[in-house]
Amino acid sequence: MTTTENGFAALGALPETVAALAKMGITTPFAIQTMTLPIALAGHDLIGQARTGTGKTLGFGVPLLQRVKSKAEGADGMPQALAVVPTRELAVQVAKDLENAGSLRGIRVVTIYGGRAFEPQVETLRKGVDVVVGTPGRLLDLARQGHLDLSAVKVLVLDEADEMLDLGFLPDVERILEQIKGERQTMLFSATMPGPVVAMARRFMKQPTHIRAEEPDENRTVPNTKIFVYRAHSMDKGEVLARILQADGRGLTMVFCRTKRTCDKVAADMVDRGFAAAAVHGDLGQGAREQALRAFRSGKIDVLVATDVAARGIDVADVTHVVNYQCPEDEKVFLHRIGRTGRAGANGVAVTFVDWDDSPKWGLINKALD
Asked: How many CB atoms lie within 10 A of CB 171?
């Protein structure tokens, strides 16, 4: 075992987990993992404040896996761990990471979310699982119908709690928490800590340790991302975007629009200009969304045009460029969008088109970021 692999071992991770992570090419812990693992592995509740792309999934994933048994280790098939996330895409991503990290122990992970038939999910639960990852609405439905028994859950994760608040899921999350009666460890992760999230933490957590993976003001800028602003009339935006997409060294690119109609129009325009582009927004069926995301992750398409809601939970590591085709609503949305690039030490480019009508709004965003 090399010294870098020893990073996770030294923090107390199981040898099987260390080996599984090494197989995934993950040997050196990120800052959030170094900070959370000692506390979480000791069984304490914790609140982790970290942006997406900082490695937080393994920050809670390694301790979560440590607290569950596999079938070979005597597990009876009742869920022992539950991770609640705001979107289908994030559920799929988190489940995949947990499955990979728990692969050498044979940990059974199931993903539960809406927009898909109930029956296969119910059947998987009936066969027995160790870890459940899901979105609040479908989790609550299955629990109420008696298909999802949460009585044996020993470890609970609430990921991107501020996003769950924004999407109106907090009441459902609280109803799920009320179903988990026994002793449990709770880990809550959130980029920001708005009042309702703090109130929920106070109500459902036992003296949590609060960890920040960044200084309070660090998220005001994204250090590895070069930020450009173009004054562009709406008639010229397609041409300017096409030029950006021809840049040397451009990799996967996310283009953000405010409306579904604009998403479709921009994606179609880029396809007409010869780029491999696709749109994702709320009107697309789940199958079509997943197909577009798979194509983007694999590089079959390298331009993904998305609305803010559809992009939540899309966790793709190699995005080199983010383009705000339409000006974001406020600085929080701006930071969320550009946080898709320049991740984990890589360099990124973020471009914002500011139409004349958007000038006052951009002025406020710029002021808030100073």
From this structure: 11
Residues 92, 80: Cα–Cα separation, whole Å:
19
To the question of pTM greater than 0.85 for the whole model, the response is: no
Backbone angles phi, psi at 210, to 5 degrees: -100, 120
Query: Are the C-beta atoms of residues 259 and 343 closer than 8 Å to each other?
Result: no
Rounded Cα distance, 34 and 30, in Å:
6
CA torsion angle 78 82 88 91 (round to 10): -100
Decide if 32 contacts 54 (C-beta within 8 A): yes
Per-residue confidence band for 247, with pLDDT thresholds at 50, 70 and 90: confident
Identical topology for domains 6-212 and 221-369: yes
Band the pLDDT of 4: cuts 50, 70, 90: very low
Strand partners, 156: 82, 186
Query: Which sequence spans correspond to the domains of the chain?
Result: 6-212, 221-369
Strand partners, 49: 190, 212
For 20-35, what is each residue's pLDDT tens digit? 999 988 888 887 888 8
The 10s digit of each residue's pLDDT in 304-330 is 999 887 776 676 778 899 999 998 888
- Tokens linked to 126: 């009936």
Q: Identify whether the C-beta of residue 157 lies closer than 8 Å to the C-beta of residue 64.
A: yes
- φ/ψ of 264, rounded to 5, equals -60, -45
Domain 221-369 class? alpha beta
Topology of domain 6-212, per CATH?
Rossmann fold (3.40.50)
